[in-house]
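Deliverable D5.2: sample structural annotation.
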Amino acid sequence: MQRIKSLYIILFVTLILASCKDGQKADQDTNAKGIVSTFYFIRHAEKDRSDPENTDPELNQRGLGRAMHWAEILKDVELDVIYTTDYERTSMTAAPTAVKKELDVKYYEPQNVNIEQFKTDNLGKKVLVVGHSNTTPEFVNKMIGEDLYYEMDDNDNGSLFIVQLANGQATSQKIHINCNCPKER
């Protein structure tokens, strides 16, 4: 009889411990699912078009103004990281925001981005990504897992795409922000 009681006690304690571990795992899974990652995608600001042969132009005066405007728009966003392609126009667009946020810029190659790794590397972060008229919508589409956005018009330097990843779900929105930046002469 004593032996049966001991077996019941051992079984009872084992069940309690097992349920505690399952409860802890469920809590950990819930916390991981509750993490929100937010990505802000923009295209570079207006570039200098005075030399059609230049494949890596800097920003023109209006573009410099827009870059400063982006920094002002994002001033209240607690960014963790800024990514940009390795071009003058994208780097210059990101620079005012990077300076204000005291962040180093990381370079990426759009054609070589592993989306799942990018999501994992930036889990729970707020991220600014500066790209181009073709790469920005393509990157957003890969992040959300659907073809919702198309190549941007060459004059569109004011679109902001916001992607949030939470609970295994992606949401996105596109906002156009006007800039009262000085026009080129």
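Annotation notes: Residues 2-33 form the longest helix (32 residues). Confidence is low (pLDDT under 50) at residues 1-31.
The annotation will be released with the project's public dataset once the embargo ends.
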